[in-house]
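Exercise 7.
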Amino acid sequence: MGLLDSLLGNASELDSEELNQEFSPILADNEQVELGFKLIRDMFIFTNKRMIIIDKQGLTGKKIEYHSVPFKSITHFIVESAGHFDMDSELKIWISGTTDPIIYELKRGADVVAIQKTLANCMFG
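Solution. The predicted structure, written as tokens, is:
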């Protein structure tokens, strides 16, 4: 169901060690990836300092936009766990100065507790 999940917009969890190696050129000193998810070609990763949204654009995906959101800019967030009939979880993040949230549907089995804990630790910790 991986392709079907990707086509439907579900994100899958990525290995944080691999992400640390891949994104080390753009990470600040003492910045480490805590959690990361992939959505078809795009990704969003949580570091100990910010959330980075990686948006691959165009047909080839060679043009890449890195959207960096410091945790102090996040006003609030919602992590919705999966239910009996709705098997997917959802993450909504509101950024100061915007009215609409950033929304991601998370694949069944995504660790929503880890996502919530990571966001809480980074925002309040």
